Write a sequence for this structure.
């Protein structure tokens, strides 16, 4: 089986992207990055997801983006809570949870991993529908990085796969369930409780709940008392 590098955060989207990579005939090699996020719950979720999907090559590396700050996910300001759905992802809205250049950095790391493996395919779970409106989740960004990748290394024919980019959260969930994804082990929350329970009020929790509701399936997320 050809290998593909999958950026795996342990969240709903990246887990589904990993399952799709496997379904499309690749042997996923997962890359999880501890980038300075204020909680480590998602790192443990990524480990559980890798085990559940049978991913035997799972690398966890550290890059300290917290040295720059500039994001609530790095401890720089409060996590927005209980925003109306109409406001989340609205044109021009880039919330404080955006981490400057995060996906550019993560894809660069995945590209380096690809080169050492001799692989040519990278999967990333970015999405522009039912999403928070980050600029590095747009199709234009993915296409631009793919062009960069093909002039940046000795490996030619690099492809950046973003299979979820034009899907709603409900469509993502339905596709994942078709592929046997166990969403109970995934983690999306930006501000979990000490015991790992999801807050239920951050943008990621709101969009996740909306997705399960619209997909017509039970939400397996463990929410903390509010």
């Amino acid at each position: 089986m050809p290998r593909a590098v999958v950026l795996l955060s342990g969240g709903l989207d990246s887990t589904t992207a990993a399952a799709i990579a496997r379904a499309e005939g690749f042997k996923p090699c997962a890359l999880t990055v501890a980038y300075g996020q204020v909680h480590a719950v998602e790192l443990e979720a990524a480990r559980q997801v890798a085990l559940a999907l049978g991913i035997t090559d799972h690398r966890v590396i550290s890059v300290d983006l917290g040295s720059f700050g500039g994001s609530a996910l790095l401890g720089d300001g409060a996590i927005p809570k209980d925003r109306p759905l109409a406001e989340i992802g609205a044109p021009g809205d880039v919330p404080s949870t955006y981490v400057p250049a995060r996906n550019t950095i993560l894809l660069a790391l995945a590209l380096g991993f690809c080169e050492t493996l001799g692989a040519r395919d990278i999967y990333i779970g970015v999405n522009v529908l039912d999403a928070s409106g980050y600029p590095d989740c747009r199709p234009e960004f993915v296409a631009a990085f793919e062009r960069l990748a093909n002039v940046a290394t000795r490996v030619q024919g690099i492809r950046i796969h973003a299979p979820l980019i034009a899907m709603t959260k409900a469509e993502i969930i339905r596709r994942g369930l078709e592929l046997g994804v166990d969403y109970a082990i995934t983690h999306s929350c930006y501000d979990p409780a000490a015991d790992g329970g999801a807050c239920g009020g951050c943008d990621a929790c709101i969009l996740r709940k909306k997705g399960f509701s619209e997909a017509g399936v039970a939400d397996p997320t463990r929410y903390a008392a509010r």
Summary: The mean pLDDT is 96.
